[in-house]
């Protein structure tokens, strides 16, 4: 009985969400089909980049926002950015699109431990050992979609929010 109680408490307090590495996780928004997928930080990324991600919309399958989370110099709160693709690929970046101005920028929070906190990062751990939060919060994301040209194609009748909840590991069936 004590084991069951411990498991219930761990789940209720937002314990780590998965056994897979963070860069192999998929999150979804409750009540709709928006997806956030963490990826490995690319080789040659900025030294302060701690995560790479993509966000895509169910209403527009061509819409894939590329993103990153950084720990800025001086101010320790992780900051994120999502950009929309625009233009053709450049010859010097065959694997990376030429990105437009940022679509969303802001602090990134997560459900860790007993509540909401800054997005977890431990500089002493390798990328594949970083905490996998139960939820990721991108404040203002939904309002950016609402007040953008994406409202025509990416908004649906389902509620769009700023919270993405762990759904599964990428290699799960």
Structure description:
This protein has helices spanning 2-12, 141-146; strands at 25-28, 35-39, 49-56, 64-70, 79-85, 99-107, 109-112, 115-118, 135-137, 163-169. By secondary structure, it is mainly beta. The chain has one domain. It has a ten-stranded antiparallel sheet, with no helix packed on it. Strand 3 and strand 4 form a beta hairpin. 23% of the residues are buried. The model is unreliable at 1-15 and 89-95 (pLDDT under 50).
Oligomer: single chain
> What is the count of β-strands?
10
Largest sheet: 10 strands, antiparallel
User: Overall pLDDT, averaged?
Assistant: 80
Strand content: 25-35%
Domain count: the total is: 1
> How many angstroms separate the termini?
31 Å
* Rg estimate, integer Å: 17 Å
Topology:
Blueprint: H1 2-12, E1 25-28, E2 35-39, E3 49-56, E4 64-70, E5 79-85, E6 99-107, E7 109-112, E8 115-118, E9 135-137, H2 141-146, E10 163-169
Antiparallel strand pairs: 1-2, 1-10, 2-3, 3-4, 4-5, 5-6, 7-8, 7-9, 9-10
Q: Can you summarize this structure?
A:
The chain is mainly beta. 10% of the residues lie in helices and 34% in strands. It has one domain (2-169).
Question: What characteristics describe this protein?
Answer:
173 residues; ten-stranded antiparallel beta sheet; 2 helices; globular; disordered N terminus
């Amino acid at each position: 009985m004590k084991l069951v109680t411990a498991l219930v408490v761990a789940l209720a307090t937002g314990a780590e969400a998965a056994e897979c590495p963070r860069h192999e996780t998929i999150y979804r928004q409750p009540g709709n089909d928006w997806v956030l997928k963490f990826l490995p930080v690319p080789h040659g990324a900025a030294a302060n980049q701690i995560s790479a991600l993509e966000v895509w919309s169910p209403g527009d399958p061509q819409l894939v926002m590329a993103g990153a989370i950084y720990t800025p110099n001086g101010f320790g709160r992780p900051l994120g950015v999502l950009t929309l693709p625009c233009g053709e690929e450049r010859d010097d970046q065959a694997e990376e699109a030429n990105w437009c101005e940022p679509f969303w920028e802001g602090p990134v929070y997560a459900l860790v431990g007993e509540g909401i906190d800054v997005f977890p990062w431990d500089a002493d751990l390798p990328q594949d050992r970083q905490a996998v939060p139960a939820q990721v919060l991108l404040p203002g994301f939904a309002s950016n979609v609402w007040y953008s040209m994406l409202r025509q194609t990416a908004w649906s009748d389902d509620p769009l929010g700023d919270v993405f909840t762990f759904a599964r590991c990428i290699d799960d069936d």
